[in-house]
């Protein structure tokens, strides 16, 4: 069967329909599945075919709304809610215990959730909020769920981890390894912190694929520029208006860049999770639903940096991530 070439305009639904056979029977966990977000759109289209879609969020009431939204579109969807607060390592551990108690294996883990861009703030663990939510907690969650992912592997199937990064991984100078474990308010800038967190997503996918030695394939991606609920948060909105991404009234600035719809924005996530053409490209970076390693900034493909970030993150969570 010849597979189509995806483009900027491709929707998540179109990708899911192409890979329906690959999605059938699979169990997927997606973090950050709130209304008007690309995580929920990915959950919705995957729920058409998947055996189980686990949706997560830190607010149980909002999670309930997300499940209702999916089931309204896909009445037969098998959705399971998981309360997960990525700003707390204790909460991540608690959620992982719950997932590991599920009877089903886990075929795909999609680290989609991200913190809002905002002023310098520490989590309960003393970590900078964006780096904690976007990288350190997903690293811990992946580590704790790795045995469940590995149990889904077979001679014909390699489990996947998908990190939703951004094109901003190429901006700035990359992750400041000195401040990952020791945040410094003097060196903090909202947008740079976001770029660093997105760089960490790319480095993590590359190093995870390498260390698993073919047992887990990890990918990172740029979903596109999408007007999601995270952009409407007050602090984030002000930053984006100042940067010209949003207009003065908080709407997408179409003069500055091309915007994707939610449906288009979730497409690359679905492709990263299920496109069989990626099996020979572990650690790849995707853009418009296709491999685009040429768009990885040099500081995010440096093997030494990837190893250092891995070791620092292991130190923060207090346990080794081995296979």
UniProtKB/TrEMBL annotation:
PANTHER family named in the record: RETINOL DEHYDROGENASE (PTHR24320), RETINOL DEHYDROGENASE 11 (PTHR24320:SF283)
Family of this protein: Belongs to the short-chain dehydrogenases/reductases (SDR) family.
Taxonomic path: Eukaryota, Fungi, Dikarya, Basidiomycota, Agaricomycotina
Pfam families noted in UniProt: adh_short
Keyword list, A-Z: Oxidoreductase
InterPro entries: NAD(P)-bd_dom_sf (IPR036291), SDR_fam (IPR002347)
Protein name in the entry: Short-chain dehydrogenase/reductase family protein
Cleavable signal peptide: none
Keyword Transmembrane: no
Single annotated GO MF: oxidoreductase activity
């Amino acid at each position: 069967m010849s597979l189509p070439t995806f483009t900027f305009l491709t929707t998540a639904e179109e990708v899911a329909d192409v890979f329906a056979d690959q999605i059938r029977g699979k169990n997927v966990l997606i973090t950050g599945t709130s209304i008007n977000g690309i995580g929920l759109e990915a959950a919705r289209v995957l729920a058409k075919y998947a055996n189980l879609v686990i949706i997560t969020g830190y607010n149980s009431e909002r999670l309930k709304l997300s499940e209702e939204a999916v089931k309204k579109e896909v009445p037969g969807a098998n959705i399971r809610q998981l309360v997960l607060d990525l700003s707390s390592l204790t909460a991540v551990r608690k959620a992982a215990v719950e997932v590991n108690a599920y009877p089903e294996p886990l075929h795909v883990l999609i680290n989609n959730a991200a913190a809002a861009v905002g002023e310098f703030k520490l989590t309960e663990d003393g970590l900078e909020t964006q780096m904690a939510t976007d990288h350190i907690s997903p690293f811990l969650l992946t580590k704790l769920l790795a045995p469940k992912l590995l149990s889904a592997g077979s001679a014909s199937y390699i489990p996947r981890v998908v990190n939703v990064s951004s094109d901003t991984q190429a901006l700035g100078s990359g992750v400041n390894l000195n401040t990952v474990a020791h945040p410094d308010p003097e060196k903090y800038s909202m947008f740079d912190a976001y770029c660093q967190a997105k760089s960490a997503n790319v480095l993590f996918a590359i190093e995870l694929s390498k260390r698993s030695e073919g047992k887990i394939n990890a990918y990172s991606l740029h979903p596109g520029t999408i007007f999601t609920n995270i952009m409407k948060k007050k602090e984030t909105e002000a930053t984006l208006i100042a940067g010209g991404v949003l207009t003065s009234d908080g709407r997408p600035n179409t003069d500055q860049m091309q915007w994707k719809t939610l449906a288009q924005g979730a497409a690359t996530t679905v492709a990263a999770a299920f496109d069989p053409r990626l099996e020979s490209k572990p650690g790849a970076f995707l853009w418009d639903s296709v491999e685009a390693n040429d768009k990885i900034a040099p500081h995010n493909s440096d093997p030494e940096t990837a190893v250092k970030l891995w070791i620092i993150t292991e130190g923060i969570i207090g346990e080794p991530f081995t296979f």
